Amino acid sequence: MKEREGQEVATLAQSTSAQDGPAAPEVEAPARKGSGVKIVVILLLAAIVVAAGTWLYFHYRDRVSSDDAEVDGHISAVSSKVAGNVVDVLVLDNQPVKAGDVLVRIDPRDYQAKVDLAKAALAQAESQARTAQLMVPLINGTTQSGTAASAAQLADARAEVDRARIGYEQAAGADLAVAQANVRAKQASQERAQADLARMKPLVDKAEISQLQYDAYVAAAKVAQSELEGAQQKLSSAENEAAMRKAALDAAQTRISQAQAGVENSQANRQQVPIRTSDVGTASASVAEARANLETAELQLSYTTVTASIEGVVTHKSVEQGQIVQPGQGLMTIIPLRDTWVTANFKETQLADVRPGQRAEIRVDMYGKSVSGRVDSIAGATGSRLSLLPPENATGNFVKVVQRIPVKILVDQQDGLILRPGMNVDVTIFVSPR
User: Fold this and answer.
1) Which of these, 301, 330, 338, 364, could form a disulfide with 111 (CB 3.0-4.6 Å)?
2) How many helices (H) does the chain have, and how many strands (E)?
3) Are 259 and 156 in contact (CB under 8 A)?
4) What topology does CATH give the domain 112-285?
């Protein structure tokens, strides 16, 4: 439009110059002045554009930005570890809690009864263990003394056998032989006296010898008969003594057998010592088992009081008083607002110069303010590869798409701003080109 106005002014000036002659220079001067202003404006605009482009180049050369970012944090799910009736709920939704604060109480009476039973079982097991420990030295001493006594009885029985054998050998040997020889001698003397008396009987009848002499032979025969009877009685006594000594020897040998049986029994009783020792180990194991059962029962009892594991804000509370809960059932969620970070999904083409430790600027959409941070780490895979259904580029038609890789950015100072997981932010990382 301005160019057309300039051309019309120039045409008008030329026509005026042709008519008037000397007045032409007065019309040409304004035309030249307008052209100079236009050039200056164009040059000024070009300089502004170049300066802006230069500033933008140097401004964005050492930084990469992404608006595909959000606040992340630990989400602690609170669930019940035991089954029971909820007797008290001590928190509300969006209520701040500290680590260790009681959140929910479950009826503990059933679990307290199990603890009491476990304590009684532990006391019984400990009593049995003490009894088993006391029985070991008792059985050891008893069996040891019994073995010694049996060994002494066996020695006495063997000595008695030796004495009985000697007595029997003497009674059945020399004493019996002497008695038998004495009987034979007396028998011979008696027979000779009877023979003499028989010879003297006719002589006394014929009065060839005196009656006195005959009476002497009668007396001698009676004496011989008496001595024979005495010798026979001694022989019978000797035989009886030999029989008695034989019976005593048999009895002593029987006592040896009994003593040997007593020794074997005592040695067998000695085997009770290792058995009792093993009983001590079994009793100790029972004590350990009872103690473990008690600890388990106490642990189950402690689970009836549900506490906060971390500091944060209660969210998504789904438990109410009187409700019956089961193990593993979710009760609420705790969000730690003081331990949050930012996950920014940068294009893979933006991460060539990004390194852990680099400074970052985080602009929070909710507050319209920025906070400082630093790059903590870069994910090991792209977001699409970590998705539930990762793409399979080996099938179908392949279309190359720029992938995004999650970058974890820690917030240095929140400047009083509360960053809640899921909030949208814009992230700028200040990089140093290689």
Assistant:
1) 301
2) 6, 14
3) yes
4) Helix Hairpins (1.10.287)
Could you give the CA distance from residue 408 to residue 344 in angstroms, rounded to a whole number? 7
Residue pointed to by tokens 């300039």: 6
pLDDT digits (tens, 9 = 90+) for 233-292: 877 777 777 777 777 767 777 877 777 777 777 767 767 777 777 778 888 899 999 999
Q: Is 306 exposed, middle or buried (0-12, 13-18, 19+ CB in 10 A)?
A: buried
CA distances to 137, 270, 275, 284 from 133, in Å:
8, 16, 12, 10
| Separation between Cα atoms, residue 49 and residue 25, nearest integer Å | 37
Contact 83, 324 (CB under 8 A): yes
DSSP 174: I
Question: What are the domain boundaries of the chain?
Answer: 1-61, 76-107+302-333, 112-285
Measure the CA–CA gap between 206 and 376, rounded to whole angstroms.
165
List residues bridging with 104 in a β-sheet. 89, 306
Q: pLDDT tens digit string along 286-327?
A: 999 999 999 999 999 999 999 999 999 999 999 999 999 999
Give the H/E segment covering residue 400: none
How far separated are the first and last CA of the chain, in Å rounded?
51
Residue 303, SS3 per DSSP: coil
CB 299 within 8 A of CB 180: no
